[in-house]
Amino acid sequence: MPIVQFAPFSSLIQPSFWHELTNLKIDVLRLSDEALPISGSYSTGKSVKDRETGQEIALGCNLSIGSESFDKGFKPSQGSIAVLGTLKNYNTIDEFKAADKTVLFNREAERIWEHTLKTRDTSLLTQFLLITFADLKKYKYYYWFAFPAFVSKPAWEIAEDGWKDASSEFSSDALISIHSHLRAHPAPLPFFLVRSDATGTTISPVEAYSTFFETTPSSSQTIAFVDPSANPANPGWPLRNLLAYLRVLYPNSTSSVRVLCWRDTDIQTTWKSRFGVVEISAAASETSSRPAAVGWEKNPQGKLGPRVADLAPMMDPERLANQAV
Amino acid sequence: MQAIQSQFWNIREYLSPVLKESKFKEHGRITPEEFVAAGDFLAYKFPVWTWEKGDTSKARDYLPADKQYLLTRGVPCLRRATSLAYTDADEDAERMVSFGDSSISGGEVDEWVETHAGRKATVDSAANPGTIDDIPDLDGPQDDDNIASGIGSLSLGSGSGGGTAETPDLDDIPDMEEDDLEEGDEATAATTKPSAAVIDAGDIEVAKGNLLQVRTYDVMITYDKYYQTPRVWLIGYDENRTPLTPPQIFQDISADHAHKTVTIEQFPHSASLQAASVHPCKHASVMKKVIERMNNSVVEEQLSRRKSGGSAAAANTKEAKKKWPFTRKASGPVTDKLQNEEEEVEGMRVDFYLVVFLKFIASIVPTIEVDSTTSF
C-alpha cells in the first residue's frame, strides 16, 4: 500500500507583516531578540479552474501571517483556523546564519509533544516557528519557517481505495449536516470527530475522543480536519500531527483510521472534501517518547534554506518616487 | 513628486464633501451608505469578501468603524495579461455571454462580449514577460541584489559559492541534520520539483516557462470620497509567495491600463503599506453606462411583470428570489420588501453595484480572477 504523503504548509507573509515588524523593531523591540508569540491562519484548500484548459489547479497549502499576527487577541477571518507560532528576529545577518536551528526546532517540537501528552489539547498541534532577519535599510527580509510534524515509524499507509471524494462515503445530507455543525460551532474547529448513527451525523472536538466514540462501531467513526491542501492525492500537513496525537493517546483503536479531509467552505453542487482510510502496521511501538520531527520549509529552489522577501520596490521611498513619474 | 501628489490627493479627498443623496443611476457614483450596502451584499453573497477595519488611526468617519474596506485574499492569477494580447484572429473567438438570468424570455438580456473564448495561450507568459522596463536600481552598486540572488540560489548542503566579503552569504548555515531528516522523509509530498542544478534567482521564471505560474493577489476595495466610487487595490505574490514588484504587477494588467490608470500608491487604510491601484477617475462614467444598460432591461422586465397582474404579487416575491441580482428581497440596510412592492418600477438596486463593479475591474485585470460572481 502506498505511503500517505502530506502536502506541507507553504508560508505566505503579507507585506503588512513586514511593515508591522519594522515598526515593532524600531519602536519596541529595538535590540531585543527574545522570542515573540505570533499567530497565523490557514483555511481550506482552494483550487481554481483554468478557463482555457479546463483543468482544476490546486493552489498552495498556505499558512499566512499579516500585520494582525502580532495582536494578542488574534481572530482569524471567517472560515479560517488560527495557529500559534513563535517569532525569533535576529539583529544581524550573522546571528541569523549562526543560530542553532536544530535546537530551536527541537525545542518547539518538544513543547508540542509535552503539551499534547499532558493536556490532550490539540491547539498546539499546528504550532510553527519563524526566524527572521530584517535588513531595514535595504527593505530586505530574510526568513525561514518551520512547521514541526512528527514522523511516524513505520509510516502511515493509505488503503487500496486511495483518497476519494467524500461524497462517495458520506451522503449529501451527512455532509450538509457536518457543514452546518461546523458553522455553528463557537470556535472554528481545526480537527473534529464525525459520528454517523440512526439519529444523524454529529461532530465533536477531538478532545472528546473516548466519550464521543464510546458506543460507536469503528466503521462509522471518522476523524476529520480542516484541510489546507487542495491536492486530490495529498492531505494537508495538519493531519500528520493529528495522527501522531491519536496514535500516542489512543494506541488501541487507531491502527486504522477513517479520515475526512474537510475542504468545503460553502455548500456547492460538488463536494471537494476527500475521504480515505489510513493504516499503520500494528507493530508500531507504543512508547510515548517523542518521535523525530521534520518541517523546515524549503526555499523556491526546493532546498532547505531561508527565503528572502525583497520589499524595496514597494517600500523604498526613492524607488517609489521613481515609479510615480 | 509623488509625495506631493499624494498629499494633494489626501487634502482634496479630505475637503470634498461626503456625497449624501443617491446618484448611482445618474452618474455612476455612490454614497458611503450605498457603498456599505453594496459591500454587505457582496460579502453576504460571496463570503470570500470580508469587511476590514484597517488601521484605526486611518479610519474614515463616514464609514462604519468595522466596515472600512472590503478584502479578499489569495485570488488566483494563472497567466500574465501580456499573453492575452488581442489580435484579429481572436475576433472569431468572441462570444456573447448573457448576463443575469438567461431564462428571461424576452431575449432582451444584457450580453457581454467574452473575448479569447477557448483560446490557447500562444504567447507564453513567463518566456515573454512583456516589454515593461524594469525600474532602474538607484542603489548604485548592485551588491544588495547580489544578496538576493545569492540567498535565492543558496542550498544548504552545498558548501559552494563564496560571496564577496561584504556580501552576507547564507550558504553556510549549519543545518546538515535537518537536511538529512527531511531528505529521508518519505511522507512529505513534493511540492516543487527541486531543480537539478542551482539556478540563479533571475532565471527561475524562464526555466519553468512551460508550467503555469499561479500568482495570487490580495484584492481590496475602498471607497474613494473624492470620486465617490469604489477603488480597487492589489497586492500580489508570485508562485513562491514572494511579494511582486511593480513591474511584475503590471504584467497582470491589460496593456491599455498599465502605467496609465494603474499606479503604485499608499494604501489609505494603512500607515505604510503600498499597493497597486486602479485610478478611479473614469469609474463613474463607465459604471453609469453599464448600469444604464442593465437598468433598462431590468425596468422593462419589471414593467412587463407588473402588467401581468397584481395577483402575481405573491408569485412576484418568489420570482424575485430566483432573480436576486436585481430585486433582492432579503434583509439589508436599504432593502425593504414592502416598499419594494408598493413602489413603482425601481430598476436595478444599488446593492448590486459592487458586483457590476467587479465585472468592470475584471476587464482591467483580465487574468486575475476577481470576479468570483460569474459562477452565478
UniProtKB/TrEMBL annotation, chain B:
<keyword id="KW-0833">Ubl conjugation pathway</keyword>
<keyword id="KW-0963">Cytoplasm</keyword>
<feature type="compositionally biased region" description="Acidic residues">
    <location>
        <begin position="134"/>
        <end position="146"/>
    </location>
</feature>
<dbReference type="GO" id="GO:0019776">
    <property type="term" value="F:Atg8-family ligase activity"/>
</dbReference>
<dbReference type="GO" id="GO:0015031">
    <property type="term" value="P:protein transport"/>
</dbReference>
<protein>
    <recommendedName>
        <fullName>Autophagy-related protein 3</fullName>
    </recommendedName>
</protein>
<dbReference type="Pfam" id="PF03987">
    <property type="entry name" value="Autophagy_act_C"/>
</dbReference>
<feature type="region of interest" description="Disordered">
    <location>
        <begin position="301"/>
        <end position="341"/>
    </location>
</feature>
<comment type="similarity">
    <text>Belongs to the ATG3 family.</text>
</comment>
<dbReference type="GO" id="GO:0000422">
    <property type="term" value="P:autophagy of mitochondrion"/>
</dbReference>
<feature type="region of interest" description="Disordered">
    <location>
        <begin position="120"/>
        <end position="194"/>
    </location>
</feature>
<keyword id="KW-0813">Transport</keyword>
<keyword id="KW-0653">Protein transport</keyword>
<dbReference type="GO" id="GO:0061723">
    <property type="term" value="P:glycophagy"/>
</dbReference>
<keyword id="KW-0072">Autophagy</keyword>
<dbReference type="GO" id="GO:0005829">
    <property type="term" value="C:cytosol"/>
</dbReference>
<dbReference type="InterPro" id="IPR007135">
    <property type="entry name" value="Atg3/Atg10"/>
</dbReference>
<dbReference type="GO" id="GO:0000407">
    <property type="term" value="C:phagophore assembly site"/>
</dbReference>
<feature type="compositionally biased region" description="Acidic residues">
    <location>
        <begin position="168"/>
        <end position="186"/>
    </location>
</feature>
<dbReference type="GO" id="GO:0000045">
    <property type="term" value="P:autophagosome assembly"/>
</dbReference>
<dbReference type="GO" id="GO:0044804">
    <property type="term" value="P:nucleophagy"/>
</dbReference>
